[in-house]
Each structure stands twice: as C-alpha cells, then as structure tokens.
Amino acid sequence: MRKKRVSKVLAVTLSTSLAATYLIALVGGHSVSAEQLPLKGQTITAIQPAAVPAAPSGPIDPKEVEAFADNYFGESLKKFNVPGAMFVVVQDGQVVLSKGYGYANKESKIPVDSNTVFRIGSISKTLTAAAVLQLADQGKIKLDQDIQSYLGGITIPNSTSKPLTMENMLTHMTGFDFPYEKDDDASPDLLNQENSLRDFLMDRMPTIVRTPGEAYQYDDYAFALAGYAVEQVTGLPFHEYMDKNIFQPLGMNSSHDLVTPELKARMAAAYDPEGTPYPEYGLYPTDMPQGGMLSTGSDMAKFMIMLLQKGKAGDRQMLSEQSVQRMSEFSVFAHPAIPITSYGFESIFNELSNGQYVVSKGGNIPGHASFTWLLPERKTGMFVIYNNDSELRSDLYAAFMDHYYPKSTQTPESVSSLTEQQAARYVGLYKDLHTPSFVTRITYNNGQLVAEDRYKLGNGKTTLKKIDPLLFMDDYGKKIAFLEQKDGGIANMYRPAKSPIAYSPKIQEKALFSDVSKESPYQLSIEKLHSLDIINGRDGRSFDPKASMTRAEFITMLLHAVGYPPSKSKSGYTDIEHHYAVKEIQAAVENHWLGEEPEGRFEPDRTITREEMAVILTRIPLPWPLSDEVRLAGQTDESAIKAVSKLIAAGVTDPVTIANSDGSVDFRSKAPLLRQEASYFIDKILFVP
C-alpha cells in the first residue's frame, strides 16, 4: 500500500471543466464513420475549417502582445494567488513572446523566466502522441493494429470481440472499465523510488468491457500503455526514446520525462491554492508518459512551432504532415457540432473560443497547472504554465481570445420545445463512464429537459433547450449531445461539464423491490442505487431494507458508488485474507477511508454503526462545510463527533435523525446502520444535489 497523498486532486488527470466547441473539423481528409463519431447509423463527411480571411487580428506585434500579457498577469497572479507563471506565444514560426511573471520560488524570491522548469502534467500526452506517430511514420507501429503486437507479452483482458488499437488509445476510445489514475500517484513516499512502467501497467490493469472505438472517456492508462509500446518497439526506455528522438532534435534541452539533477535545480516550487508549498514528491510510475514530463516555456515554444509548421523543425521533418494532421484535426465527435479529441489534443474551453478553430490540451499535477492551445489555420500557438492549482488558465484563455479574436455578431441558436412524448426517450439516469459517482438525472418540465446532478451550478439543475433532436444547450451556453441507438433510443449523453469528461451511458432503471414501499422516505435512494448496480436485493425481488449492514457490506457498497476499482495490494489486516470483500477493504485502506484498527483486525462481519459510517463517509474528498459546529444529543464516541457533526452541518441527515426543540441533534450514532439508511446516506452525499 502507498501512503499519504500530496493532494486530493488526481495526480495526472486533467482537472478543468471541459467544454464543447461549435465547429466541425477536418478528420484526416476522409469521412467519419458512425463508429468513430460515434453516431449510430450515420456517416458524416468531414469538412475543412472555414478559411481564415486576411486580417490584422491576432497576436502579431511583440510589443502589443507583451503589453497585453503584462496587464493580464499584473492583475491575475494576485487574483488567483499564483506565485509565478510563464506565458509563451508563437506565430508563423517565430516566438512573439516568452516571458515569466512572479516567482518560481516565492520564499527565495527566484523569478520565473523562460528557463524555469515546470511539471507539464497531462500536456505530456501530446508529446507521447508525437512519439507514437513518429514511429508510425517509420512503419514501426500501425495505428489500426491490435495493440497486443506491441506490448512484449503483456495481455490486456478484453471481454469484447474487437481488438484495441493505438488509434483507440490516442483518442481516449479504449473501452476500459477503470481508466484513471489514483490520487496518490504523486507522493513524497515515491521520492527516490524506481517504479517501472511495466509494473505500473500490471498493477493498474483494466479490462476492456466496451467495444474499442465506441465510447469516449478520458484515459490516462491508455497513454501509459502507448508509452510502453514505444519502449517495446524501440528497445529503449520511454524517457530515453523521448530524449533522443523528440527533445534533442527539437532543441528542447530542458525537457525530460525524469527529474534530472540539472532540471531539479531549476524547477519551480509547487503551491496549493492557499499558497502553501507542497512537499517534494515522486511519481508512480517514475517514467510517466501520461503526465510526468518536465519542460520550460522556451522548449514548449519549439514543440508548438514544429506542429504549426506541419512537422518541420528547421530542415528536419520530425513528423509527417499526415501525423500532424491527426494531432491538429478532430477525429472523435459527440455530435457534428461537438468535436472532442484529436490524437493527443482535445476540445477544451471552446465555449470561450469565439468561433475560432482551436485544438488544446491542459495539464494538472499537484502544484503545477498548464494549458496549451493552437490555432492551426492561423499558425498561432500559446502555452501557459504556473505553480499552483488554480484556474487562471481558463480566465487567461477567455481574456486572450476576446482580445485577439473577438466574438463576431452571430444569429442566436434556434431552440424548440419538446412534448412529453418526445422527451420520453431522453428521460432517465446517466452515469459517467470515467467517474461513476457523476450521475445526471434528466427529467421533463414544461417543454424542456432538465439536467440535475450534484456537480452542476445553479443548485444542481439546468434546463436543456433543444437545438436539434440530438443537440441541446444548457443555461450556461454549453452544448450537450445525446447519442442514438439504432432503434432510436438514447445510448449515451455527452455533457462537457465534468472533469475529466466522458460519455454517460443511459441507465436502464430497474423494477421496484417488493418490500420497499413507494411511501418510504428511503425508496427513491434505494431504487436509484439499485439501477446504478451499487446495491442488490437479498434474493429475488426483496431488499430487506431494515436489516443491519456489516462493515464489509458497507465498504463494498461505497466502493461501487464512488467507482473505485478493488485493490490488489495488501491491507495488513489479519482477518480478511479469505473474506469475500478482501479487495474492497484493501481499496478502502488505500483511499484512507479507514483509521487505525486494534491489533491489526478489521472485523469485516461486525455490524457497522451509524457513527462508523459517518467517519468513513467524511473521509471522501468532497466540498464539506467549513464549519462543523453542531450541538449533539445522545451518545457519540469522541472519535466520531467531528464526522457526525460534519454530516449534520452539510444537511445530510435521514428521517430517523432527531432534531430537538433546544437545537441539539441526535444522530442515533450508536444504532446499527440499516440497509435503507446506508442507501439514503450514500445517495445524498454522492448523487443528490
């Protein structure tokens, strides 16, 4: 088991809210199949982005660009509590601006400059994609061939009849069940450790459970696997291949996939949003194709210029024009109006793009956040990186696009209403593929669909206005797509408001349990969790709602609700080795849900109490209230007072919690946790707005 994490955020996954663009892009000069979109039963011919008219717009004048950046960062570093930032603009093969602002280390007053080293997080994926495509140019990798050919004996379990390809991996269309990183993959405990890419892949091995190429979900594991394929094809460690074939030829002499002593000496310190320094940390795996690279502003300028010059760096053709096209033009769509991803880049913040054709990529790793965006038709590229976890990048992007590419006057989208009968096929529950606890309920009200979940603005609700039968717009101007089945039913929803984003399959809601009354205050929660396959009945159609739960049953239920995979590591408990829930309990230990247990025993079959439940639930990283000052009545162990108070302060109480006339609250902490109560609390914490 790995120990305490650096941050609650995932170490290498993109943590920004991702948004849809409104353009249709060229996809490799050929038609986009229904499978590639995927839009069932359709073939849509890809078209070129609109020709860019000759105009003096854009970041052309170095002095003017510097004035814009000076003004922006002069205000925004303070606004977002960012210690230091690096901003780069390239245009038509030249660096227009490469300038640092603030401090790489605020304690030592070391300024940021073009040679300051940062961790670029998931922008590493664009460089990994470039390495794979370079080998494809040389005929050493076939993008449409079974990936097993390139894995040196590693076998990816596949429950479908279709092989996984490199094309699927570079466009996040793998079909993996658990594609994401864990949040302790960046940890001080990993410093000075060597953890191989192969060991990481074996440790985190997913199973292909959906047909590759059919459904999009942001996928870190896929890019780790792509990096390992580079190793196997070339016989070189991934970092060595990158150094010899990408970094050195481009003159990116301050970029690497490992923290070398020379780069470490120039690395920016990492800070949380409050300005507290993160401790120094290592990564798992040490050589991390999906998010572990280091670079500088001046180096990233060279990479952007190469892509914008159709793969040329000086007189050297680093990538073929076809490979650059694969990186700069979208190949996966949720709808013709909503492109999602190219090879290595994505469609991010495009509600802020003002109608421009933009491919982009963001990265997060504790204490460093980054964003790069390219306008290929204008031969323009930008890169920003800074040393805290704030969202300065989306604010910068909006300011930059408004300044250089202001929104033209456009006819408002034409929207129409739905009848209740027309709305019926959309109504239901949708569970995010990447993060199963992101569940959206679609309902119908007065001619419009209503989307409701825990993670949306506006008290969890937004209306969806119909633009066409599969395209809607929410209250914030973001477009939402529904994907049809061949029979006309709805298979998936794509809602670019989650982090990381993925398709959300529509869930087939299950019949009611025979022993759960419709009048029960617990009924909606029980049936929802049953439909989401989080809980099952005791036998046949009965649920046994008033039976108490064991500790193992609750942990298993919670793990399924959060969407974490069972663990292969050892927990240290001596009484769970042969228990049915051993892997779930070990996962609970890994995720820091459990405290110290006496004498190394977990007692999995002991009945769990309501206060024990509260302690475990409040260890899930959620935006809990800052204050947990609640006056408790009844008996609660001292070790559970804070957790119980936190639940009550958050308004998460059930019908048997007693609110006394004197303002005190009796949570009934010592009572056994019943199955109906467990369903209710998990629903209220994870799924109900």
Automatic annotation (TrEMBL):
Keywords annotated in UniProt: Signal
Position of the signal peptide: 1-19
Pfam families: Beta-lactamase (PF00144), SLH (PF00395)
Residue ranges constituting the SLH domain according to the UniProt record: 509-572, 573-631
InterPro entries (UniProt xref): AmpC-like (IPR050491), Beta-lactam-related (IPR001466), Beta-lactam/transpept-like (IPR012338), SLH_dom (IPR001119)
Domain of life according to the entry: Bacteria
Keyword Signal: yes
Record has Ribosomal protein as a keyword: no
Alphabetized PROSITE patterns for the sequence: SLH
Protein name as annotated: SLH domain-containing protein
Higher taxonomy: Bacteria, Bacillati, Bacillota, Bacilli, Bacillales
